Amino acid sequence: MPSFDIVSKADLQEVDNAINQAIxxxxxxxxxxxxxxxxxxxxxxxxxxxxxDYKLDAxxxxxxxxxxxRGVSVKFLEFKKKEKASKGMMRQEIEIKEGVNKDSSKxxxxxxxxxxxxxxxENLNDHLRVSSKSKNGLQxxxxxxxxxxxxxxxxxxxxxx
Length: 161
Fold this sequence. Notes:
Blueprint: E1 3-7, H1 12-28, E2 38-42, E3 45-50, H2 53-69, E4 77-79, E5 83-84, E6 90-96, H3 102-115, E7 120-123, E8 128-131, H4 135-147, E9 155-160
Antiparallel strand pairs: 1-8, 1-9, 2-3, 3-6, 4-6, 5-6, 7-8
Helix pairs in contact: 1-2, 3-4
């Protein structure tokens, strides 16, 4: 029986590339001369530092632009609360969300059942496995899910016959 997996996984190499490009742009921009603003990633958390709220917002805008250009959806980002750091600076952490959470998986399952009521759906820890009797049924599910509005970015992998 043909099947595929629905996952939500960010390409961390592209995230690193976007961070490096953002840092490079910040070093060349006039409004960042002499500031201590920085971006760094530790595992699945991006840490942003800015001299003040304005600089921190500018760093966020630069990072978002570079991520979009690298093909990384901003749906992977979960912005934490801004907080004061040492020496009057501002800090914000951004968590890179991966995996399909329970709420999203329920919405996805309901949508899949609308398209193909006979599809078998296995809810694994952080992804879904969808099986159907025909490849066409699976392709119509993928087509429908691509236009379905969700708060997570989905990828379709492991297409098997």
